[in-house]
Write a structure and sequence with these properties.
The chain is an alpha+beta fold and 887 residues long. 21% of the residues lie in helices and 30% in strands. Helix 6 crosses helix 7. Bound molecules: beta-D-glucopyranose (BGC).
Length: 887
């Protein structure tokens, strides 16, 4: 069969055919496909045109000699608002072959300038826009003929849902998302062409408080951004004859109160179906209701920006696994999985019957419904029946973190068929898979994925159930690399990082939660370092330099903030820090581990200064690159003076201190092997158990495997007794817990003041499972998996593992297994336009074969070298199957 070179999977700003992009220089990426090994791109040509025929391209690069296939910035004529731009790509490869044009892809611009907006903000009159009862808006208008294109651009102060002629404008939930509203407010673009028809049409909207003004945090602070809900909307229509029409929110709109009496993120919904007007059809916005004039208002809002991350949606639906009658007499549905979203339920009851659903994560040791750990979050949905037949409800602006649902008010037996668990999160593309020979580890991996599903609902949250659900910077920082394996998270984090920068104080100090809530405070080390570590991680995983460029002022400001603290320029030993949060080696009944806070703060100071130096270097900021490299050198020196003995021991010998010192290269080279040995001894002396908290945990196994103790790292991962990653799994966990012992071996709980069963921080071990156990890693020399490093750990109690990652270049796969007699197999799939270093650990060079051939005779193999570690093979793209015997 003739092998052809193809270009496929075209992306604009990471997305497939996105509608509503306001980047003036969007970036285009594509993948290559070819069965030939070792394929690289040598040239490309891009055409962009406002017509699918490409008759008059607005950009044609011609043939450009370049191996670049990611993030090529648009450089054509200035883009026009509300326009669809088609693009296609062809490439040439290293064998001189030319591909055909790719299939055509497109992106559509949103509203590129403030002048595109003519809508007015509208609100319910007077205090009606300030109370807790949701608002309904309505606009009826006449469409004059056949429509070829219709778009709604809309946003709200609060949360909104849009309907066109009674049907949802699309499946987006929790719009406009959570940003630092007084600085940046996202609007959404809806393609409503198919929902409109000639004649009378009705746009309806429902508005709730949401993050804008509903209760937030443990103090249930309200009106954080403002006290009045409001809506802004424009409908742009193009008729078949090319004429255009526009309807915008203004004084001609009407508003009403309706059946949605209450809908708050922490507390749930109250819906009285008896208040639906005939023909409302949830909500049909029929003319008969008590519609009154709206108020036109002029709220203070930040810049309007087009939706940046993927929308939140119902991504999965779960069916109950059982219905329980608890010893306390409650009827409780078990979803079988700690999940985030809501329950869609159907009931058949008499008019006025109140149905109540209460949501909880766990049952207590007696098997009773338990809500203690939710603190003040009520997580309760109340539905009052209209009567007369099956009625189905699902919430509007609340989400619940739960596995168990207590149901009250239903007469007769409950049927599991009437309850659907709707899993809601930002609809990121799944990118990773992992499996190994140990089923408990596989379950742990699944739990880590569920931790991300549950906590990536528009912002990265600490937990999704109690009165918190905030964008804790520290948690995001420790989990981001794992997150980037499991899902495509670039747009998600790029949005969040913009809010981080927007909420940073003028002195560079970073809030503890983003979007910021003053009450949550500012400035802890390891939390604030999210400003630097997160953009850098996106660069490493996606080869994205624009995020570094955009965030650079924020990254630098954070390091300068640290530098200005206290009297010692290169030590950070002042201020408030969370320390090794929830570490186990601290004082009894204390939430902070034993590692000194100034050691952690100075270690992260060094790490952040180093990243800023490297980013400056990449971006061509010469002076900064040198200045921060020098600062980094001096901070490392100060660290050694303050925290390391002359012979290289850490003065405060904790697991976290050693892990940080080793992973951030803070020790003199000659001292590192000994330090690693001491770390290993600390763990062994603790009966192979960790003591690390949020700060040390992500680095612990990496530090061990980097310095020759991978076997111990794996034994830690396989440890089943508390404290360990698998302990919760043995207790039936379906998500990752906040505490190593959220539920104790005797079935009792950790203090209910702070005991989330869906906290992703310790899920950061996912990164190690991918990179060290399965061995699917990026080589630091070329970001975005342009150069791949395959280096599994094949020697411990795990006999096989496999992982895959849909990288920007294509899917990378690694799989291996090992027999007791030392026979081993390692498969690797390396995408076109990348190369890989494949290490066959402990391989006897004489025995290595790739599909039966010796390495010297293999297509795609570029070099082979033998060392103590085994055989290292450098390869180009292709599918490889190595077999060998381990020495
Ligand atoms: C959150 C965390 C967070 C921490 C700060 C907690 O309440 O749930 O995950 O990082 O506070 O230490």
């Amino acid at each position: 069969m003739v092998d052809r070179l193809h270009v496929l999977d075209l992306r604009c700003e990471y997305k497939k055919n996105p509608v509503g992009i306001d980047e003036r220089k969007p970036r285009l990426s594509w993948k290559l496909a070819s069965r030939r090994r070792g394929v690289t791109q040598t040239a490309y040509r891009i055409q962009v045109s406002a017509e699918p025929s490409f008759q008059n391209p607005v950009w044609d690069t011609g043939r450009r000699e370049s191996d670049r296939s990611l993030h090529v910035e648009y450089e054509g004529t200035e883009l026009v608002s509300g326009t669809r731009y088609y693009f296609r790509v062809k490439v040439w490869d290293d064998a001189g072959r030319e591909s055909d044009w790719s299939e055509t892809a497109f992106w559509e611009t949103a509203l590129l300038s403030a002048g595109d907006w003519s809508a007015r903000w509208i609100a319910a009159p007077g205090d009606e826009s300030k109370d807790d009862r949701c608002d309904y808006f309505r606009k009826s208008f006449t469409v004059q003929g056949e429509i070829v294109q219709a778009r709604i651009y809309a946003t709200a102060l609060g949360l909104y849902r849009l309907y066109v002629n009674g049907r949802p404008a699309d499946d987006t939930l929790f719009a406009p998302g959570w940003t630092s509203y007084n600085r940046r407010l996202q609007y959404q673009t809806y393609d409503v062409t198919a929902l409109l028809a000639p004649g009378e049409n009705v746009i309806g909207a429902v508005l709730g408080n949401g993050w804008y003004k509903g209760p937030l945090s443990w103090d249930l602070i309200t009106d954080v951004y403002g006290d009045r809900r409001a809506l802004l909307l424009q409908l742009h229509v193009t008729y078949r004859d090319g004429t255009q029409a526009r309807w915008v929110s203004d004084s001609s709109w009407r508003c009403a109160k309706g059946p949605l009496l209450y809908s708050e993120i922490y507390h749930g919904d109250t819906y009285d179906a008896r208040l639906e007007q005939p023909g409302w059809n949830r909500p049909g916005f029929a003319a008969g209701a008590d519609w009154r004039p709206v108020a036109v208002v002029e709220p203070a809002v930040g810049a309007l920006v087009a939706q940046e991350n993927d929308p939140a949606r119902i991504v999965k639906e779960l069916r109950p696994i059982g219905i329980i009658r608890t010893p306390g007499g409650d009827t409780v549905i078990d979803m079988g999985q700690n999940m985030v979203g809501w329950v869609r339920f159907t009931v058949r009851e008499a008019e006025g019957t109140a149905i109540r659903l209460q949501h909880a994560e766990v049952l207590d040791r007696e098997g009773n419904f338990y809500t203690g750990n939710l603190r003040k979050a009520r997580q309760t949905v109340t539905y009052i029946c209209r009567g007369g037949g099956p009625e189905t409800y699902e919430p509007f602006f609340s989400f619940q973190g739960f596995r168990y649902v207590k149901v009250e008010g239903v007469t007769g037996e409950l049927s599991p068929d009437d309850f659907v668990g709707c899993v809601i999160h930002t609809d990121m593309e799944p990118t990773g898979t992992f499996r190994c020979s140990d089923e408990l580890v596989n379950k742990l991996y699944e739990n880590i994925v569920w931790g991300q599903r549950g906590n990536f609902l528009d912002v990265p949250t600490d937990c999704p159930q109690r009165d918190e659900r905030l964008g804790w910077t520290g948690d995001a920082q420790v989990f981001i690399r794992t997150a980037a394996f499991q899902f495509q998270v670039a747009p998600f984090f790029e949005k969040w990082l913009r809010d981080l920068a927007a909420d940073q104080r003028p002195d560079g100090c970073v809030p503890h939660v983003v979007p910021s809530l003053e009450a949550a405070g500012f400035g802890s080390s390891a939390w604030g370092d999210a400003a630097v570590i997160c953009p850098w991680t996106l660069y490493e995983c996606y080869g994205d330099t624009r995020v570094l460029e955009r965030q650079y002022p924020s990254m630098k400001a954070w390091v300068e903030y640290i530098r200005s603290q206290g009297e010692e320029e290169c030590l950070w030993n002042t201020g408030f820090h969370y320390g090794d949060w929830l570490g186990l080696d601290g004082k009894p009944d204390n939430s902070v581990g034993a590692t000194p806070k100034d050691l952690i703060a100075t270690a992260f100071y060094a790490r952040s200064a180093e990243i800023v130096a490297r980013s400056a270097d990449l971006l061509g900021y010469r002076e900064d690159a040198e200045a921060y490299a020098e600062l980094h050198r001096r901070v490392v020196e100060a660290f050694r003076r303050e925290f390391v003995t002359p012979n290289g021991r850490l003065a405060s010998p904790t697991q976290t201190a050693y892990a940080l010192a080793l992973m951030f290269d803070l020790l003199e080279e000659r001292h590192r092997p000994r330090a690693a040995k001491m770390l290993a001894e600390l763990i062994e002396a603790n009966d192979t158990h960790l003591t690390t908290g949020f700060v040390g945990t992500p680095y612990l196994c990496f530090a061990l495997s980097r310095f020759g103790y991978a076997d111990l790292a794996l034994r830690l991962v396989l440890q089943r007794d508390y404290p360990s990653w698998l302990y919760p799994v043995t207790q039936g966990a379906t998500t990752v817990w906040e505490h190593w012992d959220g539920i104790k071996p005797d079935g009792s709980f950790w203090d209910e003041i702070m005991n989330s069963f869906n906290h992703y921080a310790y899920g950061s071990i996912g990164d190690w499972l991918y990179r060290r156990l399965a061995g699917l890693d990026a080589d630091a020399s070329a970001a975005g998996y342009r150069r791949i490093r395959v280096h599994p750990f094949m020697d411990g109690a795990i006999s096989s593992a496999e992982a895959s990652l849909a990288s920007m270049y294509g899917t990378i796969r690694v799989g291996w297994n090992r027999e007791d007699d030392g026979a081993a197999r390692l498969d690797a799939v390396i995408p076109p336009n990348t190369t890989a270093v494949v290490i066959l650990p402990g391989a006897d060079p004489e025995t290595v074969r790739e599909r039966g051939r010796r390495l010297e005779d293999c297509e795609g193999v570029r070099s082979v070298s033998v060392s103590e570690d085994g055989v290292t093979v450098e390869v180009g793209s292709g599918e490889y199957e190595f077999v060998f015997v381990k020495k």
